[in-house]
Each structure stands twice: as C-alpha cells, then as structure tokens.
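Example 3.2
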Amino acid sequence: MKKTIVLLALILGFNGFAQIIKDSILSKKQDKYRYITVSLPKSFKKDSKKTYPLLFLLDGDYLFDPFNGAISYGNYWDDLPEVVLVGLDQNKENERADDCTFDETTGLPEGKGADFFEFIAGELLPQIQSKYHLSNFKIIAGHDITAGFMNVFLYKDAPLFNAYISISPELQLDMETHIAERLSIFKQPMFYYQSVGEGDIKSMKEKIATLDENIKALKNPTLNYKYDEIKGASHYSLVLFSIPSALYQIFSCYQPISTSEFQEKIVKLESGYVEYLKNKYDTLEKVLNLKMPIRINDFRAIEAAILKNKAYAEFELLAQLSHKMYPKTMLGDYHMAMYYENIGDAKNAVKYYLNAFQLQPIGELTKDLMLEKADALKSQVKK
C-alpha cells in the first residue's frame, strides 16, 4: 500500500507536458459564470486538424490534478492517448450540492439540478467542443454525489458521453436498477467504471454492490464494465487508486502490444498475425475515434510472431501494410527482404535489403543494418 501511494504521489507531480488554462463560461441557464480548468496536450498547437478525446471532470476543483498527473504519466509511456482534460469547479457557494439537486420522488434532477444538467449539455459541452477541436469520444468522471449525478446522462436516448468513471457514487432513487437497464440497450461501445473503498460509507456500499450485481448480469457485448472494491481504502483515499484503473480500462485498446499480449494472444495464433495488427488499430479508430499510424514496435512484435511460428508468407502481407503506413521509409522493403531471406531466396533478399538502404531509416532500422544483411547473404547468391 505504501509503495502504491508513493507511486501515485509521483504521478500527481508529473504534469510537465500539458498547457493549463483557467477559463470561465457564462451560463445563461444558471445566470452566473462557471469556472473550468483545461489541460491541453503538448501537440495541441502544433496540429490544428488533430482531434482529441474529452475527459470531463465534475468536482474538478480536487479531481483535476490527480487525473492530469495520471494522463501525463500514461502518455509519457504511450499507454494513454493525449486528451483534452476539463475540470469544472464546484467548490463555490455550495455549488456542488445545488448542482446535484434531485427530486426525491422521481430520482431525477430538479430545480438547480435540472439547470445544471442543461448547462453541461447545452452550454458547456458545445463551447469546449468548438474551442478545443474534440473528437466524438467523451468521458465523464465524478466522485460521491457528482458520480451519482453523472449517471443522468445515461438516461438520454443518445448519451453525450461514451465512458463513465463513477468513483464511490451516491446513487439516487432506484439508480442501481435504472443504470443497468440503460446500459443493457446501447448498441454502440460504452464504458462504465465504478469503484468503492473497503472502508466506504455503508449505505452507499450497499447500493453500489447491488448496481454491480445488476450490471454483471447483463449480456450486452458492447458494454465494457469494470468494478473495483479497493482494499484498505476510505471514501476519499480510493480516488487515487481508482483513476489509473479506470483510465487503463477505457484506453486498453490504445496501448502498444505488451509482452503478455504477445505471449498470450498473438504467438498462440495459428495464422492471421498481420490481420490481428490491422484489427487492433481498426478497433482503436472505431471505439475511441483515434486514428494513428501503427507503432514501429508493434510491427516488430508481429515480425517476431511470424518468425517464431515460421509463417513466412505473412511477411508479404506485412510489407503491404508497412508500405502503406510508412511509404518513404525502408520498412516495407525490409519486410519483403525478410520474406525472401526466410524462404531461401537470397538473390531477392539482397535486392530488397539494398532497396531499403536507399530509403529513410526508421526505428532501429538503419542503412548500416541493411548493408550488413545484404553482405551476409551475397555469398548464397548463385552466379
């Protein structure tokens, strides 16, 4: 537990990549200014056409820093993508309680709570969407009463958010039933995370446990659900444990091919290694609305799987894909050279290694390496 707390403390201080902006939005619905803190990715000003997932935080006055640290740390290791992080301040003039006002008989927002819902849906989100060129993938997070409130967005026919991070939620009337009912009907990919601390508030734990049982009973293949009961954590300390767990759940398909993925999934395939790689990135685009070139290290993982299983014909398919991804580099010709080398055609292998030599190096592939490989095979070429 102590080691984990030390790691999380380091994460909280790991925010050197982002540009932090303090901003305000005039809410006509609430007749006052609302204050937000925005963290923009390091690439934001470099590429005006790039879009980013939104991570929107209720209770932004105290959730912003831990989320920002976790995102920055994960992105440094390329485990988490760049996102636009927006935290809403709810720590002024009893705003938090007013924002989350519910009708005790219907379990729906009323009065100031209904106004707050309309402020987020009709004022805040449209403004930040136009200002910070967001993608269509949006996450909302909250803690305690705000975690309960954010579930109201699930009640819309077309939810505004694709992923929900519910940290020790205070669930309103019959939410433990209604949330599961809503999650059962969505056809598009939906992510739902909730956590509770071992030492959490008893009355809240009971409802959360019931909701967990109801969600686990669902048979919806488009739902990605995770539940954490964090040992030794209180209602407040569980926040630091929940954040990385939720983010790594939601962005699991973004992460590079890991050693465990390679050993447990890829190497065990009888065929279709290149198709696996293509599907991985197609899923990333389809589910998270993130389009990105295939990582060089992921190409190398597929190379290793092909070699290990002696499925040398797949090098031709891999070459087609690498030519498409990195047309000006030596990667595609290198893969063709590997194909010919491994089927025993030294002449064509030398030809493609020399072709690769004339193109741009990429990753660990250098001009010297291409010459070395060509020279090593020249003695096998029949004259």
